[in-house]
Amino acid sequence: MKKFFALLKVSVKSMLLSSTNARGSSRKKAATGVGAMLLIAFLGLYLSGLYSSLLMQVLSPIHMEVLVFIFMGMGALVGGLLFTTFAIKGVVFGGKDNDLLLSMPVSSTMLMASRVTAIYLENLLFSFFVLAPAGAVCAFMTQSGVGHSLLFWVRLIIAVFALPLLDTALSVLFGALVAFLSAKVSKGALGQNIVMALYLVAVMWFCFNLNGMIEGLAANAAGVKESLSWAAPMLWMADGVMGDWGKLLAFAACCIVPFALVVYGLGRVYRQAVTAFQARAARNDYKLSAQAASGQKKALLAKEARRFFGTPMYFWNSGIGLMMLVALGVAALVMRDDLRIYLGLLEGLPLMPMAALVMGFCLSMCVIAAPSISLEGKYLWILREAPVGESALLWIKTGFQLLLSVPCTVIAGVCLAAALELSPLEGGLLLALTGLFDLAHAAFGMLVGLAFPKLDAVNETVVVKQSLAVCLGMFVPMAVLGLCALLYWLGGMASAALALALPAALLAVWAAVCATLLAKRGPAMLRAL
110-139, pLDDT tens digit by residue? Predict the structure, then answer.
């Protein structure tokens, strides 16, 4: 077991932590690990608290609290798959330390078990912050005494520890499928993009239909439960938490057995799988062809585009905000009649500031510039040896984010302005504010990428999902949006003009400061790497 725990420690660090090359890296490493865990915990707590409360308002009067645990169990399962499926390829099958670890005097099954257990621990964190708040909401809002006994919490803890086993088994199988498609498809990113697109379509369908399901629960809660018979393990878990020990044991067995089979089965062929995937990745098919001439800036922009669109982990995590932004604008335009009816019920709602706030939230998730330096990895010196100045390199990377975010901002802004029937002045102000946010966000992302680099990451997953630069590049802009909302509220106490002027001034100052620091300090920070 000593060997297993040593391997598990390495795997957990690879999964959750990212170090830096700068001084004080131990503090940054700890901050990154804590930041990643806090992000997972916050998302689980927010989703569970919100939807558990909505469900309990409908289900508590008819004593159907069991459906809360069915839906929250599904949410924990889907969320865990979203967090870990596309990390499996890098963490389990694509780690740069596989050659070293496979040469050690440990079985491949033990190595597989340690890496899968690291995935399990991440799923366990999310499962706890989804199911535990659901139990607390049920205990607080129930009308039938659910959650008022110690055995209820014992059963809930058993479910919390069992569910991530099933989640991890499915994640590993789907991750192996992604790795297989990447190895077999001539363009490795294509297979991952196809799977990820289908997965996101399924998640979005579930999210859009969840509210409709909640509305129909009060009228036919029992029928809804019967219609979910295809999700038998979730029904067993919910009934078990509510008091059926037999079904709880059946659910635990349904989770433990697939986990054990996945670990043992893939552990037996782990060495062969890793060898096959890496051999395919290392293969190059050279074809002689004419090379098109291009300028320096065009070549560097093309290089950024190839990395962004050719790295599924980078593309989907950093580009999801832009997809949501465009989808938001188009959906608002298509459903503008329904939207206007709904907004008509909310008299006095400031439409343009609300639209700017929602657009800013989507843009905050467009973290393209922040990880771009770290994604260069050990080949950063090649880029620095190019006959291009450091300042030009930094502005090209920053400009690439703007090249993607500004057109999406304009499309979404125009659609929202038309759907909300904003005046030309309000529409222009909406585009101006979000344009300032685009500039400030890109420059700030480049700065934090230089300040907190991760050039020795084992794979792009660690950089894109768990690096401190990405966390800061996402959450600091969200905090700025919150401050803008506060300034709007404070300014509104004086006049409408001041309410708009204060957030605009904040965004302008933020953009000017970030752009100035990047221009003056950026080249020196790049040379220091």
Answer: 888 888 888 888 889 889 999 999 999 888
